[in-house]
Amino acid sequence: MAKPLILISHGNLCIELKKSVELIMGPQEGIQTVDLQPGEGQTEFLQKFTAVTKDLADFVVFADLYGGTPCNVASKLLLSGSQFKLYAGMNMSMVIDYLNSNMLDNEPDPIKGGVQGICDVNKTIQALDDEDE
Known about the structure:
The protein has 133 residues and is of the alpha/beta class. 50% of the residues lie in helices and 15% in strands. Strand 3 (60-63), helix 3 and strand 4 form a beta-alpha-beta unit.
């Protein structure tokens, strides 16, 4: 069974990313979100994160930004002995690759999945045009 996935971010990015992924992949009950809203700090975010993860024995976390408050709060939990995988720099390709890997019973590689989704489209189109000549 796939490990639950927790998306954490500044503002509503994690909430909207989940919704966007669900447009492609369908409902995702195994994904939870924890958002940091304006006026909230580490204390509030920690309370929200703990509430979402308290009953999970093993889970994976994708954070929006390395060095940002959501990632820092999760990192502090790791440093204090919590056990979960934490990746920063989340994007839609990363989440979809994670879900696809789990559906195919493959070991997810979130970094590879995220990086493979990055593309200079102009360069790709130009290369296709060059091949046609």
